[in-house]
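User: Quick sanity check before I run a bigger batch. Here is a single chain. Can you write out its predicted 3D structure?
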Amino acid sequence: MFRTPIAIIVFNRPKFTQKLVETIQQVKPEKVFVIADGPRNNHSEDGEKCVLTRKIIDEADWSCDVIKNYSNQNLGCGLRVSSGLDWVFEHVDSAIILEDDCIPHVSFFRYCSELLEKYKNDSRVMSISGNNFQKGDTRTDYSYYFSRYIHCWGWATWKRAWKHYDHGMDLWPEIRDGQWLDDILQDSSAVKYWKARFESTYLNDIDTWDYRWTLACWINSGLTVLPNVNLVSNIGFGEDSTHTKTRVSGSETNSNRMDFPLKAPPFLIRDSSADSFTHRHHYCAGSRKYLLKQKMTRIVEEALS
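Assistant: Done. Predicted structure follows.
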């Protein structure tokens, strides 16, 4: 059996959940954690969809320990994911994490498992991702490289790293007012982009956990391992998605196979060229439009609640 714990995050998309379950079953995991959010008050279809999603989990032939954390009320993308991962790391020291629309190549699991073991005591590494947003450009002759970007469409981490997650972003005002992002990013365009995102998240105009996790990694000088090929396909773009209504520029549609044995870089240095490419082609596209749309959506939802 595959011994590395796997945590999956589900909500109201049974078709995606079914595909993810079938993928995970191929590796015969020893332990699976399931984090599920509850239906939203103003979405009448959520109740049935959440029930159907949980039914898939409950009726799947796991042949392993399945530990469930189901919320009766809707906590949202920020608090549900973060509280769920808090719960996971009360039980285990490391885990592979997949949301319902992130479908990995089967080699992704071995890749994560080996690197969780390799870097388990190296505090410089805070995350392992299955994503590569370099549009086919091979950045290194090694199996993976290091980045500032966490990329969480299929990833893994340790309890020792997740303990730095701060949902309240208590240090953000000091980071913002002290212009510490300039020292972290050393790129005026990136500073402008991420300052806007962190501020909107801090003010709860954006309900998400990943920007909070990004900030936690950066203020602790944490690095992420990124594969030299994309290992996870995000199939969740569409109108029923909370944040990814349209495909993000630079994101991959296909998952690829990782070759083994892994060829590790003999140094732990961030690939600044790859990060610059990611910033330009993945994060910046449509940024102002995205932020405005998220803020307007929140205003409408608050008016209806």
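The two ends are 46 Å apart (CA to CA).

User: Great, the batch can go ahead then.
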